[in-house]
Design goal:
This protein has 221 residues and is of the alpha+beta class. It is built from 6 helices and 13 strands. The longest helix is centred in the last third of the chain and has 21 residues. The radius of gyration is 18 Å and the shape is globular.
Amino acid sequence: MEQMRILSVNTGLAESLQVGGQVQLTGINKRPVRDTVHVGELGLANDSVCDSEHHGGVDQAVYVYSANDYVWWSQELDREIPYGTFGDNLTIAEFPDDMNAGDRLLVGDLILEATAPRIPCRTLAAKMQDSNFGLRFREAERPGVYFRVLNPGDVAAGDPVTLVEMPGESISMLEIFRAWYQLHPPVELLQRIVAAPVAERMLAKFSAKLSAATSANQKDD
């Protein structure tokens, strides 16, 4: 099997985009850059995050998408989809189809830790000029992965990437992705999610669901 490597490093400045009936600033328009880029605690240099309530931060500092999934989407949509289209900072060849929360990617000095799958939003649908794209993205189950930065470093297209799997129990990105859409996820599943090193935004959502489910079970008893 070919080793993982970065095919494209993508950044984007704030740009206006029509989302529903409003024009808003967004950093989703990522484009490949040729130079080496520094990755710090909050992500890539010269990269914009406009909706800080839902995106970015230390737990979702870097978004990675698979080059294989770009091939799949290009076939699915019958047009070429350039790297960076989905707002990914790093497009990686041979990226795993699924990975666990806590798994790490090593790129030189850079150490990234997987924290969450990407949940599609209206901004992505607007970018793709398809109001139903959020549903298509969900059904495709190719969400990509957010990472926190454990150790900063520099990246460039062509850099080799090493996967280090988290030892012990964890939960996969696809399990979390599917659970996000369940109205009443099983308590055992919620417990596994909140015990894993997931991103704070997701942790808050799933912790609330676990608390509600636990309360409901106690009332039933």
